Amino acid sequence: MATQKRKIQHWQFVAVLLAVYDAVVLNLSYFLALWLRFDCRISMIEQDYIDAYAHYTLIYMVLALIIFWKCGLYRAMWRYASFMELERIVLATGISFVVQCIGVSFVVLQCSDEYWRMPWSYYPVGIMFQFLMVLAARFSYRFVLLAKGHQLRNSAEYHPVMLIGAGSAGRAILHDMNRFASGNDRVACIIDDDANTWNRSIDGVPIVGGRDDILNNCKKYNIEKIYIAIPSASAEAIRDILNICKETDCSLKLLRGMYQIVEEENITVRDLKDVSIEDLLGRDPIRVEMSEIYEFISGKRIMVTGGGGSIGSELCRQVAKHDPKELIIFDVYENNAYDIQQELLRDHPDLNLSVLIGSVRDSRRLNEVFEKYRPEIVYHAAAHKHVPLMEMSPAEAVKNNAIGTYKTAYAAMAYGVKRFVLISTDKAVNPTNVMGATKRLCEMVVQTFDAKIKAGKANDLKALYSHMHSGEEPSLKETPCTEFVAVRFGNVLGSNGSVVPLFKEQIAHGGPVTVTHPDIIRYFMTIPEAVSLVLQAGTYAKGGEIFVLDMGSPVKIDTLARNLIKLSGLRPDEDIKIVYTGLRPGEKMYEEKLMEEEGMKTTPNHLIHIGNPIAFDEDRFLSQLEELMKSAYEGNGDIRQQVADIVGTYKVAEV
Length: 655
Description:
By secondary structure, this protein is an alpha/beta fold. The protein has 3 domains: 10-148, no CATH class; 156-275, 3-Layer(aba) Sandwich (Rossmann fold); 293-492 and 525-554 and 593-646, Rossmann fold, CATH 3.40.50.720.
């Protein structure tokens, strides 16, 4: 097999050129010291000095080149030369100076029987010439880049940038931009809230004031981009700065995730990321005590229904990190299930993973899965969630949400699941739409199962079958032990059905952005935050609770849409139109966290609360639910009215 020829890299070619240059410098520098000592006249230099120099200069050149190589002067990337490279040059110069002094002294002793010495000025002047010429060759490229950057600031191609933050991170960004003179982005001014820095400069760039001076200086310097490099600032401070910056027409980038960067001197422009809508929420990331979750999940068989959805898939990601004995993903949509399967296999190759296709409506499939895999904890995230679509297909919402939850809960009870956690929604509170009302039915299912088990009346719970069933029902244990709980939270950013992906798609297509009402508000949380709280709420469960997640302050959807447009570098109502379409059938102006009848209890996590469940007649509920299932599958009766008869807080909307 022919040996492949190694291609000479560009840096190796540059290293050879530097070595040749250094060889000339090492020979020339000490000769220049003699020449300068004798009034710049070669004829006046004594022959003994020339002989000593000539005898040692080639030896010194070889030794010095070895020293330079050992000190890394031929491996450094000199376009990024910094104080560390200067230290290397100083070290190499110091060692070579010692070699020169010792070597020349030895040669002098060999040249004559009489004692004599080189001029005292020979050594310091020679090493000075050597140091300056070696330094100039290495740092000249940086000086050229800086000069080019200054020239660019005065050219028409210059794209001015405002840098917010004069700390170490901001300085690192500035230095990195100065190194890349090939780009057209250059920092024109710096903003910092520390008044001690005002009217001063960094690398010639003026620090012009604090956050209150952002708008004025954007106009003064014709700023096109704003880079925010203050990783130590709180989320609230970042939000306040972003609220000012988005009033400009500038594109915004933010330095985040600094806990992953060990040395701030290594920060580059590539570490700046586009500002996301989460940054404008203005609250610190929710942090959860993961040790409790680890103890709860580790070594157990965990099942996630709807595991391919936005919430379900994040549940799978976080469960996979906590060393489960087995993770079972159950979903009816194979594409989503396949995507999360491949992601988990890539990120967790040792994970015991089973991905199963099936519907929570199918009792026989559920029984097969629970009997074979015997999960110990079930997170039930499978549901229809799109409010307008469910409003047009109420029977499907009943089948999938209410009946699907009942069937999954029954299988969990029958096969000895220890804990069943329902993923609910704030739309279940005083619902005005079918989706919210069916999710309230899901909560009632959970409450009924828990109450019956605690009362020792689990046999009152019958398996529901929508079609003729010839198989055997799973036999109940004498004393079922499953704890049933629900976790209720609001909208999550970026989830399926969330307005954020819709708005981004509308902006990408040039608008218009459709908002139902200028005053409509919603609570928002990121998907990982919501799921981590769901997992922790599951560790607190005793059975029968409805956990309520604190979603923080509500956000106006109109404000959200305008912020997204501004973050895209466009102007609302000018570049992108905003159209108000009116409330959709069953849609609320605002969402509630709790029903008026429910109180509030605290948990060790102040972001997780427990609502006191509203009492209802469980036997009557079971009878009504069975009739509702028959109507949904047979297409008989007014589904909405039947749901309203069960969920007393449901206000039926006109369609």
